[in-house]
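Input.
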Amino acid sequence: MLIAIIDYGSGNLRSAAKAFERAAADHGHAAAVEVTGDADRVRAADRVVLPGVGAFADCKAGLAAVPGMIDALEDTVIRRGRPFLGICVGMQLMAGVGREHGDHEGLGWIPGQVVRLTPADPALKIPHMGWNVLQVRRPAHPVLASLPEGAHAYFVHSYHLEAEDPAHVLATVDYGGTVAAVVGRDNLIGTQFHPEKSQAVGQRLIDGFLSWSP
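Output.
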C-alpha cells in the first residue's frame, strides 16, 4: 500500500510522515509512506493525505503551483475513489470557498465555506490552540470507530469549515459554539485537528484511515 503525503510547500510533512509510518508499523499495515510533490506518484497511490498549515489562499496557490497536482487529485480521489485524508488547512481546502483575506476557490468536494472562528465567549482566544474534546456524531464511521468517548485532539486554527450538509460533519468540538472537527463523505475525510500531534487518539485515527475500505 502506497500512502502519498502531498508536498506543496505547506504542512508538517516530517511529523505527518512519521505518524503514518508509526501507525502502519504498530498496527501491521504493509505500507510505504512517501512525501511527494510528483503528480504521477499521487496517481499511483492507494491512499492520499493532504496536510496544510497557514492561510487558505496560500495553500490553494501552492497546490495549484505543483504541475498537474490538482488534476491528479481529481483523478485519483474523485474519479477512482482512493481514500483521502485532509489535515487542518488540507481539510479546509475540501470546501467550495475559503473566506480568509477575500474569497478563494477550494476543491469543492465538501459543499460549504471556510470562515473565521467567532466564539460566543469573548474570553476564548483566536487562534483556537490546544487540546479539546471531540464529539463524534458518526461513531460507526470506520475511521472514527476506535476513538474512545471523550477523545482529546490537538487543534491550531483561526478558521473553520461550515458544511452546507450537516451529514458531512462527522465530529464536532465546542469552542464558544459548535465547530466542525471532522468532515467527510464517500471516500473523503478531513480533520480540523492534527492527528500527527494528537498522540494516541491521532494514531487510532490514522490506523482507521489505513484500514478503511470505502
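The longest strand covers residues 178-185.
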